[in-house]
């Protein structure tokens, strides 16, 4: 195994993820696609490499299409749920169908096996364009987005959960290597105007 061992998301990482989420919304790149990859089900032995490769493939394609690759990911593990990652992406609504079609090919390129439960994807909110409209059928996108952020942060350190107001918590599980990450355009340096 590579990288350091951790058993929970740190408070610093959780705060950074939340701040990045706020920043993406301010930049009108709402995170509108939610993907979960279960590494055991997909027969992926190196989760950190698989995440990096998937982000590179998706990012390169989005750039070619004139979009800015924007994403946040958080890994978790557990006895019943295994090692998996939650990814929140911004995909322009007009590119969703093409992105979904390409994503099947990217899964093959990272070596994933097409097994039941290996990949799950859904829109954030009521549709992939909910973030662009903000309000759809009386429901605010911000509420759906907050719910998903709380969900992906549920494996944060217990003391940090209380400080951050995260009500639903679960053990983050023992992991080796990176536990979370985000695209460079929304990281702390970018948000402070240092890039």
Account of the 3D structure:
By secondary structure, this protein is α+β, with helices and mostly antiparallel strands. The chain has one domain (5-187). The chain contains seven helices and nine strands; from the N terminus they run E-H-E-H-E-E-H-E-H-E-E-H-H-E-E-H. A five-stranded antiparallel beta sheet has the order 5-2-4-3-9, with helices on both faces. A two-stranded antiparallel ribbon has the order 1-8. Strand 3 (70-76) and strand 4 form a beta hairpin. Helix 2 (47-64) packs antiparallel against helix 3 (96-109). The two termini are 32 Å apart.
Gist of the model:
This protein has 195 residues and is α+β, with helices and mostly antiparallel strands. The protein has seven helices and nine strands.
